[in-house]
Amino acid sequence: MADIHPEHAHIIEQTKANMPSEEILEKTAEVFKVFGDKTRIRILAALSEGEMCVCCLCDLLEMSQSAVSHQLSVLKAARLIKSRREGKQMYYSLDDAHIGAILCTGISHVEED
Amino acid sequence: MADIHPEHAHIIEQTKANMPSEEILEKTAEVFKVFGDKTRIRILAALSEGEMCVCCLCDLLEMSQSAVSHQLSVLKAARLIKSRREGKQMYYSLDDAHIGAILCTGISHVEED
DNA sequence: AATTCATATGAATGTTTGTTCATATGTTCA
DNA sequence: TGAACATATGAACAAACATTCATATGAATT
Fold it and tell me: Of A3, B2, B20, B52, which has the fewest Cβ atoms less than 10 A away?
């Protein structure tokens, strides 16, 4: 760690004061981390078209049921999606509109290049 | 991979048709992945208050110069930040307003709980 | 009750990744 | 030109992670 330059001290203090808390920033990073995987993004993109059962997701993504289920559990733990059972099947959907909005923001950023 | 249920086939096809391309989704995941680290989020949050040199960031984050520089290079490679040199120092700033917007969206989601 | 279908989950494995340490590059100033 | 300062970068290492395989749970159907 470098020594602090006196003339920088107040910039540092002021920036620190205006930034969100460490706790908020840590949680924010955790949320983005969950979005930061191709399989999970594909799941979220699919669910933003409407709820879907696990086997549909497997077919759509052309991935094993196990791999999909593991990622669904990550998404669920992060409260990005929710589930409901209907008979033997589980239907998953985005937890709230906010999730779709975050996804769209990211996609828009990529598309605008 | 499970067998495709005939009654699901059209849902799958329709969802597939409405989803962004694989390429877009992959790039989107890559972008979110870059946001998905505490150190990088802290850097972005600091830079959203204004441009800052590397040593300021080190002091503010209380991290080694090397660790900060490595993450700055990740952020730069992903075109989330840009840099300019002023004498011996490098000043970093958010690449465009879009980056700040994505960050805010994530922070808001965390704060609203 | 037993079988089948749909999904979840634990352990193992190979890969990715963030930090550290050591060192290189580039700039200023004497 | 040489010393000092600011930043970048390569290699190494430990920790985190995504998928696979095997198996468990849970619901429907016979």
Answer: A3
- For residues B99 and B113, what is the distance between their CA atoms, to the nearest angstrom? 23
Return the pLDDT at B3: 54
Contact B28 A107 (CB under 8 A): yes
Residues of B in contact with A103 (CB under 8 A): 28
For B3, the closest chain A residue by CA position comes to: A59
pLDDT band with cut points at 50, 70 and 90 for residue B7: confident
The C-alpha atoms of residue A42 and residue B21 are separated, in whole angstroms, by: 10
Interatomic CA–C1' length for residue A29 and nucleotide D8, angstroms: 25
pLDDT for A36-85, tens place per residue?
999 999 999 999 999 999 999 999 999 999 999 999 999 999 999 999 99
A19 in Cβ contact with B46 (< 8 Å):
yes
Chain B partners within 8 Å of A61 (Cβ): none
- Give the minimum alpha-carbon distance from B68 to chain A in angstroms, rounded to a whole number: 10
The mean predicted confidence, pLDDT, of chain A is 94
Backbone torsions φ then ψ of B33, nearest 5 degrees: -60, -40
